[in-house]
Amino acid sequence: MPDLVWFVIRRLLATVLVMLALSLAVYLIFYALPADPARLGCGKPCTPDRLEQARHFMQLDQSTMQQYLQFLKGIVAGRTFGEGAAAVQCNAPCFGYSFPLARPVTTLILSRLPITASIAIGAAVLWLIAGVSLGLGAALRRGRLFDRFAVGFALVGVASPSFLVGLLAILVFGFWLNMVPVNGYVPLTDSPVDWAWHLVLPWVVLAALNAASYIRLTRAQMLEELNLDHITTARAKGAGEGRVVLLHGLRGVLVPIVTIFGLDLGGLLGGAILTEKVFSMQGLGELLISSVGQLDVAVVVGVTLFSAFLVILANLVVDVLHGVLDPRVGHA
Amino acid sequence: MPEPRKTPSETPVLEVHDLHVTFRTEGGLVPAVDGIDFAVAPGQTLAIVGESGSGKSVSSAAVMGLLPSNADVKGEVLLDGRELTKLTAEELRKVRGNEVALVFQDALSALNPYYSVGWQVAEAYRLHHDVSKKEANARAVRMLDLVGIPSAAQRARAYPHEFSGGMRQRVVIAMALVNDPKVLIADEPTTALDVTVQAQIIQLLEDVQTEFGTALVLISHDLGVVAEVADDVLVMYAGRAAEQGSVKDIFYRAAHPYSLGLLGAMPRVDVPPKHRLTTIPGSPPSPGSIETGCPFQPRCAYTERVGERCITERPLLTPRPGEGNHEAACHLGRRPEIAQEVARTGIQENAAPEGAPLQQSAAQESAPLEHSAAKAEGPLQPSAEESAL
């Protein structure tokens, strides 16, 4: 396994470089916006004097490049805005400070992450199980009713907007049938049952929509796999149909499924914007949207970089799993 | 190493009677095998030869019950007198890989890329024996060692892509033999291999056959291999038997123009290369497209001599002179007529006059090609050349 260790180390170093380049790009883009975050912090009435004061306090009076270097320094050493009694401390790793919310961005992200993670991971597990089993069933009953149902379901899932399905689900299961709570989040540590109960609806809605691509992928890959010679070998050895399908067929489909699963989950962990909005969950996506509305650039930059980092991390995990799952893939 | 289970005998272990295989497709019914019979006894080798699409592989898949669900199989497949086509799925599963095993043409695609070769051989054993994983693994390593994989215990943990072509085919053979099957069906086992490696694999098959007394059904279009290892030969054309008999019947007393055509298309080292290889004009008909008359008739050089019968009447297998059950499905009754024709095509060495003594037995040893060279090596060991790959 030393190959794998070196591979991970190399990739992590590359990740640092990518994140640096990305953070610079994000920084330049968002701070080039014709918006002035200082205006929000200057209070009323906003005289030019007070605006200048606020700008200085937020360190926005420096050049963009200087601000970026301050941002990088903050990640390693933390930052202090202002002086004396009014000073605002942002401890390392400091990914910026939200003056409207009066909190470091790192704290904000960490407080929102459990909610988004709860939604994303629960939904992902559901859609993985549902998508793969429906796709598998469709492949095995190709051309028959079950296959048509599964493929049709996949088509509807791909085509449906999540806000519409989410609202319909709230209307039907929440209000009409009164089966599940329609909004709110209970931390897992408070009550696992309430936690799951409040998340059922977003899980099911997200899973139903995302399962589509897994149904199609599993079905297509499985049909291809079942035509391969080594499947005939397995039958000729005397393997039963269940063993042939699961141990010899599905095994080959694992790699592409793990690939898109990792990328989907990585993307979703950065914020399930529409789902969080529809179900009134205070997750990362909700944080991002409200920050954009308030021109809270520090938070927008922080969440964007964090989401990007999750995607890059997901890619790394997927690549490592490739090597573990497919003996033909080397990490040298 | 187990004792030979049976000495070669003449009681067939596998008998196929009047086998028909028809595929139901969107374009209608497509017959692939149209009534063939064969039998093979323990320790004996039956070669099934013919061009691509003649129904060789479909016949073997039908024996194993491995055809897709759109295939209709009719006829009898008897293994030690047991009718295989009437078994339930579970009964058939217990036969597959246990009593009848298959060796495939392309070992790379026949092996599962995601599992180690040791696991795959052990799996074949565990499917038919109630043993622990450890015992199965030990058995797998012994089999890999037996088929000539160097440092088998270590190599058992390697994956198929980490082996050379010849070594992979040895793995497939180990997997087929792990349950000591009564019948081994090898479907073009050497086609995907280099010539020198081909010889080693054929040698290996012969050695394990001697060792275990396995009945071997060898599907091949390599007549050099067939001449060397087969006891009996079935020549298939368009899903039917064109000719069948002992290997000497086919090679020295071929009675069907198609068999002669195949022999004429084989390169030989004992004939001065003054002639181009003869070819059979045209290509095989799609099975079932010729409903009346002889399926070989459009490509046959002797149709004029026989006349209308070739077009109007389907030739049935009729006895021909030879060692035993030599039969050919051809209206051309008398051999000398063919012999004259053969004389012109430059393969007269094959065409001994009827009843002539088999002076070719010596020639046969040296004739088919390079395989004899490999025989000089140690019994089951691969050459250094192959091991190095």
Condensed summary:
The complex is a heterodimer of chains A (332) and B (389). Chain A is mostly helical.
List the helices and strands and how they pair.
The complex is a heterodimer of chains A (332) and B (389).
Chain A: H1 2-31, H2 37-40, H3 48-57, H4 64-77, E1 79-81, E2 88-90, E3 97-98, E4 103-104, H5 105-140, H6 145-159, H7 162-176, H8 192-226, H9 229-237, H10 241-269, H11 273-278, H12 284-293, H13 297-325
Antiparallel strand pairs in A: 1-2, 3-4
Chain B: E1 14-25, E2 28-40, E3 45-49, H1 56-64, E4 71-79, E5 82-83, H2 89-95, E6 100-103, H3 107-110, H4 117-126, H5 133-146, H6 152-155, H7 165-177, E7 183-187, H8 195-212, E8 215-220, H9 223-229, E9 232-237, E10 240-246, H10 247-252, H11 257-264, H12 303-306, H13 309-312, E11 318-319, E12 327-328, H14 335-345, H15 361-366, H16 371-375, H17 384-388
Parallel strand pairs in B: 3-8, 3-9, 6-7, 7-8
Antiparallel strand pairs in B: 1-2, 1-4, 4-5, 9-10, 10-12, 11-12
Helix pairs in contact in B: 4-5, 4-7, 5-7, 7-8
